[in-house]
Amino acid sequence: MKSFNCASVVSDPKNRSCLCSLFIVATLICGAYFISSAFITKEYKDRLSRWEVINMHQNSKSNTCKVRCRPPGSEALPQGIVVKTSNLEMRPLWSDSVKNGNLEPYSSLLAIAVGIKQKEIVDRIVKKFPARDFVVMLFHYDGIVDEWRDLEWSDHAIHVSAVNQTKWWFAKRFLHPDIVAEYKYIFLWDEDLGVDNFDPRQYLSIIEDGGLEISQPALDPVKSEVHHQITARRRNSRLHRRIYKFKGSGRCDGRSTAPPCIGWVEMMAPVFSRAAWRCAWYMIQNDLIHAWGLDMQLGYCAQGDRMKNVGVVDAQYIVHFGLPTLGAMAENEAIKLYASQHYSQREII
After folding, report:
1. For a tag on the chain, would you pick the N or C end, based on fewer CB atoms within 10 A?
2. Which residues is 317 bridged to in the sheet?
3. pTM value?
4. pLDDT for residue 326
5. Distances from the Cα of 313 to the Cαs of 75, 190, 218, 255, in angstroms?
């Protein structure tokens, strides 16, 4: 057996050429490895630094928002004790048996501007709204509050009094979105409405199914004072969003895209979702009295397409008596008009 001779291998030209080739290949592989490693390391460091910058930026934005997004005046307070919203739930001083926690998620608010001369009508309206589902708030524009105390629900209602002010004056000052944030729907109604054919729970069921953010109950076209045809009740209909008018001025057809042909409600009995009211409240000017013109702009607050999210509910309808308010009518005249319109007209089915 021949022993391995290293010198003979190196001295052989063929073997020497092969070794040189292997050395060159190994050198190239090592060089490529180190170069690629350097590039990969650099790219990784670059990405890591970018991620760190992004993360720092996001944390900075978050920390900035924690300060800037807080209510003005609360910056010096610990975050945990800042309460941004409230509600109209009463907390009696003489009892510790108050409810804990927030309101039920389906609780809503009924707010009405009232005068003592329409007390009977208002009593009928409030009794239609179940106390366990609705908070009642009365805006007394005649300054008379004590004469309402004989009504069984009066002590559980919120009473606000300011002489000769309309419901929009009250709403701007006492229905701030942060105060009513816990209520799913806001009913902001006039006092001269008949509710014999109205059920609030069924009404809410209809508008939720229909996706209506701003709505109103339809008006009985025989018993009501109807100012705009789109608000009149349609037979055999659950709700409608548009009107068709082919004669006279202001025609409306299937191509109409603006109020009062579509996406419009009247200001006598509007119902707002929580989100829609948060928007609408900002549109109410401080000197607004009758809300003329506001109805044409409510589409901005429809939380989407006004042609889909604003409508009139036919299945639950009311009567608009059209009584002059702010004390303009004598008490006996108001009662007579209410009685005549309430009992003398035949009901529409």
Report:
1. N
2. 218
3. 0.72
4. 66
5. 45, 17, 5, 22
